[in-house]
Structure formats: C-alpha cells, structure tokens
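Deviation from plan, reported transparently: adenosine-5'-diphosphate complex.
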Amino acid sequence: MSIKVENITKVYGSQKALNKVSFEVEKPEIVGFLGPNGAGKSTMMKILTTFISPTEGTAEVNGHTITTEAKQVQQSVGYLPEHNPMYLELYVREYLAFNADVYKVGKARIEEVIALTGLMPEAHKRISQLSKGYRQRVGLANALLHNPDVLILDEPTTGLDPNQLVDIRNLIKTIGKEKTVFLSTHIMQEVEAMCDRVIIINKGEIVANKKLSELREGQEQIVIVEFDYRVEDAFLLKLPNAKSVKNTFDFIYEITFSTTTDMRSHVFDFAHDNELKILQLNQKNASLESMFRDLTS
Ligand code: ADP
Ligand code: MG
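Because the crystal trials were delayed, the predicted structure below was used instead.
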C-alpha cells in the first residue's frame, strides 16, 4: 500500500477542513483527488507530505507513519505544491541543484530528471523565462529528484493552455506507469484523461472512491420508480438491460440498467402490463460527470 489514510480530521480554528477521511492508494496507480475549491484537497496533501499535522487520525506513506516518521515519509514522496514556489531568478539547473543538495543526489540525477520531464530544450534558461507549462515540468523534475515511489501533485494542470495541458498529462501518465501518483484537481475531465481511480471529496468528506474502468463500463442509468404496490425484485430484473434492483423504501425501487438509453418507457409499459400504478418515475445517469455534480451540489 502506497498511501493509507485513516480517519483524518483537520480543524483550522473553528473550521473543519477534513472530517474523518479514510482511503488507500495502491502502487502503481494514478489516483485523482477530485473536489470543488475549498473541499480540503490541499489540506490532505499537506498532511500526507508532513507539512502540517492532522488534528486527529493518522496516515502512512510507503509504510511510514506521517506523525512519527516524517523524515522517512519525506524521503519517499515527491511533492508538487499547488502554488509551486519557484525562485524565478534561478536557472533551471541551479534550482534543481538546490534540492539535489537537500536530498544528497548527484549532478547525474539532475540531468536524468531534466531528460525525463522533457526540459532539455529550456534547461539553459532562467525559470522566469519559462512558460507555465515548462515551470510545471521544473516542479515535476524537482519532485522526482530523489526518485520517490509516491508523487503527490496538487493541481498539476491548473492554469495550463491546451497544448501544455496535453504534454503535462502525458508526462504524468508516463510517470504513473512506475510510480504511485496522487493528484488533485477540481476538473472532472482531468480525471478521465489521466487517472485509474478517482476519490471524490466534498466539504472535507470522501463521497466516492471508484475505479475509472468501473465507471466507464458502468455506462449505467438508475431508474427510480414508485409503484402503488409491492413488486418482486426478480420480476423487475426481467426488464431489458436490468442489472440490479434495490428496494429503497416501501414500494420505491431503484433499478440499475446497463445502458444509457432512457429506460423509463419500458418501466412504464411494465407497470401497465402488470396493472401497477406508477406514483413517481425518475432517471439518473451514472456517468462520472453527473456523479460529480450530484455528489457535490
Ligand atoms: P482545496 O485544496 O480543496 O481547494 P483546501 O484544503 O485548500 O481546499 O481548503 C479547505 C478549507 O480549509 C477551505 O475552506 C479553506 O478556506 C480552509 N483553509 C485552508 N487552509 C487554511 C488555513 N491555513 N487556515 C484556515 N483555514 C484554512
Ligand atoms: Mg487546493
């Protein structure tokens, strides 16, 4: 397990930024930490990188406990902060050399991360002369210097233009083949473009944790229907494409269909054929986008 978060709560003054958050991240995996602004993403990432401590709960990164083994955690994690502080007047190699010293890695590794992040054509410049996309590459190169197993990237693609966006996404995907990447974003499409799994956070609480493959094959819809009388689940499962049925209340049923074609008319016909009355009939799409909207609205 690369990251294991157990019941973390963080309170700033009177505000609860995280409320009993738990999740796990395996290796190698690219996990998107998705949530609207103010959801608690950066707070979680600062805790995992030992910059701030949790009010309650604990976490392990690469088997090291954040509160008692901060040094080991820092050794095994690379961090790209949200507002990556960069010394603009420094040259790229100078900037990287600074952290290379901190982590006691040699000059050869600096050249390696420059090559790895595609910085070569701009590596002779000052950071102030670089585009936002190339600055992000410097931030990534910096995070990779000590060859950590886990990368924590706080909104790595925010503020990039469309071309830079594609380049940085590809770079992160390449890195994610070997390392665990935990990245935050408030944009659902970023998750679909890069991630194997998504953990959705809203108002300091985890509201979903799902593999993207599940969500994709889950081209699903849920029809919520209320009849005037009890119906056997097995009976409802005879509807075309019906996958599962949940009796949520009295005569209310949630039927999951493995199709995006609107199934309400089938349910209506079913009711008619079986002399049932429909008291309510609603449909919801189970796509990632609508899920994100539902969960965070
Ligand atoms: P996100 O990264 O998802 O946008 P943050 O983790 O930055 O969210 O913030 C979560 C909540 O905690 C927000 O309401 C924010 O205003 C608050 N917060 C973050 N940092 C501090 C701080 N140092 N002091 C007080 N409140 C903070
Ligand atoms: Mg943030």
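The pocket of adenosine-5'-diphosphate (ligand 1) is lined by residues 12, 15, 17, 35, 37-43 (CB under 6 Å). We consider this an acceptable substitute for the interim report.
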